[in-house]
Amino acid sequence: MAFWTQLGLLLWKNFTYRRRQTFQLLIEVAWPLFIFFILISVRLSYPPYEQHECHFPNKAMPSAGTLPWIQGIICNANNPCFRYPTPGESPGVVGNFNASILSRLLSDAKRLLLYSQQDTSIKDIQKVLGKLSKLGNSSSSDLKLRHFLVDNETFSDFLHYNVSMPPSAVEELLDAKVNLRQV
Domain boundaries in the chain? Predict the structure, then answer.
């Protein structure tokens, strides 16, 4: 019972104090109301604007491999925001660079080395090695930048739609030759 007695005495003391200090009571009630009305007036003066949902292009982490990681850094350097879902946004997709020429070369070599159990695997490996040595020995390669990019992907779409360059300049950029020795 001591708790209820103490609580009753504390409330009676607080009520007596408030009755004697009317100006302080008015300030304690009016100050939060004043701040609340300021917040309402600011909200009415500056209504919120609608912001669309933001989809960012995917960027591979270094654990996904060096090539996807570097491609993700270079292709999405300005970190754009899109209204629609990006190609690599679905779960389990590491990168949307799977159809680039280097990725295809690596996947073909992996398939050749790991999954080929036929007698022609040695001949296939010799073909691949011959093509790779021919590619490495050629000083003026016929590889263009567009061979490394995939149509309708992040960087190629960015070049075609978001860059303020004439289409002829974009095509000239995509037709630029790539020297693998310098790369």
Answer: 1-45, 62-112, 120-175
